[in-house]
Design a protein that fits this description.
Layout: E1 19-23, H1 27-39, E2 43-48, H2 51-61, E3 65-68, H3 77-84, E4 90-95, H4 100-109, E5 113-116, H5 121-133, H6 142-154, H7 170-180, H8 185-192, H9 196-210, H10 215-224
Parallel strand pairs: 1-2, 1-3, 3-4, 4-5
Helix pairs in contact: 2-3, 3-4, 4-6, 6-10, 7-9, 7-10, 8-9
Length: 232
């Protein structure tokens, strides 16, 4: 969750195209984003112009990534995230708002990343690819806000501090500690001299063992256990 997480490779040539749904109530912006993602080699499965349509079309098509505006008619962005439940689709919020409360509401509801609409076409494309891989992507300045909120939450009685951590391998434990500090998969791979895909596999294994659904929940859990501290 560092400020530079969008500066990562878009993917390997032999990888399957990333599938997306784009939800925004401004037709010109929605169509422009969908066109840019399609031109970048992604598969745009559907678009939506309100909250209920975003939920229904995402559940029907199960894309890799839902690119979501926060201020949709019918349902706000965080309500859309919550309505998707445990669906494997990852959510990248693309909003005109950079307000702290909007960011935190979206992330707490399950969004993987958050960009403001002033981001460039290249940044948006890179962010969607990163989100599809499981990296948490944030507009510069917002990553620290989210980690700070998770650390604040870890001091509150929302997570059972006595909850046991199932047996993890040594490598899974290493990866979990680095995830808790906010590092991206690429940065973790570089630090441990392994590929970002191997890091992603370790994270998926750890999520299964901890019975968590996404990286945001994993970061929150790890911080609550104190794994983001150097002593950990």
């Amino acid at each position: 969750m560092t400020e530079h997480e969008t500066e990562i490779e878009a993917g390997t040539p032999d990888a399957a195209p990333v599938s997306v749904v784009v939800a925004d109530d401004h037709p010109l912006w929605r169509d422009a984003v969908a066109r840019d993602l399609a031109e970048a080699g992604m598969t745009v499965l559907a678009t939506a112009d309100d909250g209920p349509a975003a939920v229904n079309r995402t559940k029907a098509t199960r894309p890799d990534v839902l690119v979501l505006d926060l201020n949709l008619p019918g349902m706000r962005g965080h309500e859309v995230c919550a309505a998707l439940g445990s669906l494997a689709t990852r959510v990248l919020v693309l909003s005109a708002s950079g307000e702290q409360q909007d960011v935190l509401e979206a992330v707490k509801a399950g969004a993987t990343g958050y960009l403001v609409k002033s981001a460039s076409r290249e940044e948006i494309v890179a962010a969607v690819h990163a989100t599809a891989r499981g990296d948490a992507v944030f507009t510069p300045g917002l990553a620290g806000l989210v980690l700070g909120e998770f650390r604040k939450m870890s001091t509150q009685p929302q997570t059972d501090p006595s909850r046991p951590i199932p047996e993890l391998t040594e490598r899974e434990t290493e990866v979990l500690k680095l995830v808790a500090t906010g590092m991206s998969y690429k940065e973790i791979g570089s630090d441990l001299f392994i590929s970002h895909r191997t890091v992603q596999n370790h994270v998926q294994n750890t999520l299964g063992k901890l019975q968590l659904h996404n990286r945001i929940e994993l970061v929150r859990f790890a911080i609550a256990k104190g794994l983001d501290t150097p002593e950990a």
